[in-house]
Amino acid sequence: MKVAACRYAVGRPADFATFAARIEALLAQAKAQGARLAVLPEYLALELAAVFPPPVHADLHASLAALQALRGDWIALFTGLAQRLQMHIVAGSFLLEVAPGRYRNRSDLFSADGAHLWQDKLQLTGFERQARVIEPGDALHVMMLDGVRVGIAVCYDSEFPLPVRAQREAGMQLLLVPSCTDTAAGATRVRVGCLARALENRTYVAQAVTAGRADWSPALDVNTGRAALLAPMDAGLPADGVLAQTADGADAQAGDAEAWALATLDFARLEASCAQAQVANDRDWPGQWQPRLRRARLQQAPGA
């Protein structure tokens, strides 16, 4: 399966039609390069707040409330594109109202056969907690695409090993990570998390990122990072775990011409690599659950 991860330069669309046209052109570009699955970044829907007047788009709470009117258009857009392009699409994320004034950061997956699946973000960042209107998801999913089991970890979720391990134990072979980070440290944390999850679970990871500045938005103001396709660091695979990556996401000057990191992922080869593995973190995972290792004890020298 050829997979594309997007480095998305945040724009300022005048209306939904403008946004939709750009998304279609981007996905058509990935399709033309052979992609069967495309991953767009976290908070993608917040770019649509730009279509509302300044008192709305400059205020996070007002933006979230206003965006709900576009949810139907969002679903129709990506459902149609997935079927027309015959691609599976992770549409970044949409802050969806699940109760009056309460939102979940939902990553929608639209399949080429018309299915609509999703994963809500489980762990909230400081920014999301401080908003006081965003709540974490309460369920963990694995989805089937073309016979491949995939899971989604929305940005910060990629930094937590146990939920991703649960997805792996449900058969996940590819982890999809829509992300949005505003500092080099944040971008590094997510990348390190993605590489660690690839190593621990012997799985591929596709990470999408936002890029550039959007000073009109309190949430998308600054964006940095590199979109990438990652693999375990082992025999027959890249020593640094990087199969493909884009330029630094802070540099949005290249526009959509350099938007995609693409790689063909051979899942049979990855499974077969277990036999020649230099390390087998995925197989050896249960070793850390030995009762004597559940708790560390202070060791003191005699007479101390």
Short description:
This protein is α/β, with parallel strands linked by helices and 304 residues long. The protein contains nine helices and 14 strands. Strand 8, helix 6 and strand 9 form a beta-alpha-beta unit.
Q: Element order, helices and strands?
A: EHEHHHEEEEHEEHEHEEEEEHH
Helix content: 25-40%
What profile does the largest beta sheet have?
14 strands, mixed
Mean pLDDT equals: 94
Structural class: alpha/beta
Number of strands: 14
* Global outline: globular
* Low-confidence region ranges: none
How many helices?
Answer: 9
End-to-end separation in angstroms reads: 60 Å
Radius of gyration: 20 Å
**Range of strand content:** 15-25%
Word description of this protein:
- Strands 1, 2, 3, 4, 5, 6, 7, 8, 9, 10, 11, 12, 13 and 14 form a 14-stranded mixed sheet that branches.
- The protein is globular, with a radius of gyration of 20 Å.
- A hairpin with a 2-residue loop joins β7 (143-145) and β8 (148-152).
- The mean pLDDT is 94.
- It has 304 residues and is α/β, with parallel strands linked by helices.
- The longest helix has 18 residues, at 184-201.
- The protein has helices at residues 16-32, 54-57, 60-67, 71-85, 126-131, 161-169, 184-201, 267-272, 281-284; strands at residues 2-9, 37-39, 88-90, 94-99, 102-110, 116-120, 143-145, 148-152, 174-178, 204-213, 222-223, 228-230, 242-245, 260-264.
- α1 (16-32) packs parallel to α4 and α6 runs parallel beside α7.
